[in-house]
Amino acid sequence: MRILLIGSKGQLGSELNISLKKYGEIIDSDRSKLDLENHEKISLYIEQIHPTIIINASAYTNVEEAEDNEILASKINFKAVSILAQISKKLDILLIHFSTDYVFDGTKKDPYLEDDLPCPINIYGKTKLEGEKAIQESGCKYYIFRVSWLIGKYGSNFAKKIIYFAKNKETLKVINDQKGVPTSPRLIGEVMNHLIKSYQTNSIWDFGIYNLNPRGEASWFIIAKFIINFINEMDNKNSFLVKSVQPVSTNEFKTKAKRPLNSLLDNSKLEKVLGYELNDWESYFINDLKEILHNSL
C-alpha cells in the first residue's frame, strides 16, 4: 500500500507520518514536494506516484489572515482539494481529507451532527466548506473528518502560546464563551489506523463525513486553566511568571474573523464504526501537554 501524505510536516501530518508507517510506504509530501498553490502540477505528481490512498493534512489555516487573503485561502482549501478529488476519482484512489468545525456558525446549542446545515461565518470556514463540497461532487471514494481545536506536540498551537505567555506574564486573559474540545493528533492517528486497517481488510466504513474529536466540553479558558494548573504541579524551578488566568468574552477581543461560539461536534457516528467510545479530551490532552511542556523547559 502506498499512502501519499500531503502536509507531512504540519501539526497533524507529522503525527500521521509516524503512526501510519506500518501500513506500507508513506510518501511524505510537504510543500517543497507538492505545493497546493501550484495547481498545474498536482495531477501530474499524483499520476506519477499513483498511491492507494491520499491523505490531505494540508490547508490554509490562518483564520485571521484568510479574511484579507480569500483568493489564497480558496486556492489551497477549495481549488487544490477539487483537483485532488478529481484525480482520486480518475485513478480510483481513496481520499482522506480533514476539515473543520468552522463550517458551522456556532449558534446551535447542542453538538453539531454531520448532516447539520453548514453556515460558515469566516473566510477560512467558507473555503473549507467549498473543499468539502468539491470532494462530495467529484464522485471519488472519500472520508472527510471534521476536527475541532487541533492541539499536539508538533507545530504552533494554543497550548504552546499559553505556555509562552505563562513564562512572561503574571495575568492571562482567555476567552471563556467559545465552547469546544481540543483534539489531539494522536487521537486522529488512532482513528486513521483503525480506518486504514478496515480498508485493507475490506471491512469498509461508509464513505462520507465524520466528526472526529474527543468527548467532553471545554472553553479556551478551561483549557488554559488546565495548562496552568499542570505547570504549577510540574514547575519546580519557578520559571513561570503567571499568577492568574482570567475569563473574558469574545467581544473583548477584537479580531478580523468571527469565531463560532459552539464548536462542539457529535462523534457518535464515528464511535459506531469504531466500535468503542472515545475518551474525554483531558486524557488525550495531558499526554501532549507533557511533551510540549518538556520541550519548552
Structure, explained:
By secondary structure, the protein is α/β, with parallel strands linked by helices. The protein is globular. Helix 2 packs parallel to helix 4. The mean pLDDT is 95. Helix 5 links the parallel strand 4 and strand 5. The strands form three sheets. It has a six-stranded parallel sheet, with helices on both faces. The protein has a domain of 206 residues: Rossmann fold (3-Layer(aba) Sandwich). The longest helix is centred in the N-terminal third of the chain and has 22 residues.
Topology:
Elements: E1 2-6, H1 11-19, E2 25-29, H2 39-49, E3 53-56, H3 63-66, H4 70-91, E4 94-100, H5 123-138, E5 141-147, H6 158-168, E6 171-175, E7 179-180, H7 185-200, E8 208-212, E9 218-219, H8 220-234, E10 244-248, H9 268-274, H10 281-296
Parallel strand pairs: 1-2, 1-3, 3-4, 4-5, 5-8, 6-10
Antiparallel strand pairs: 7-9
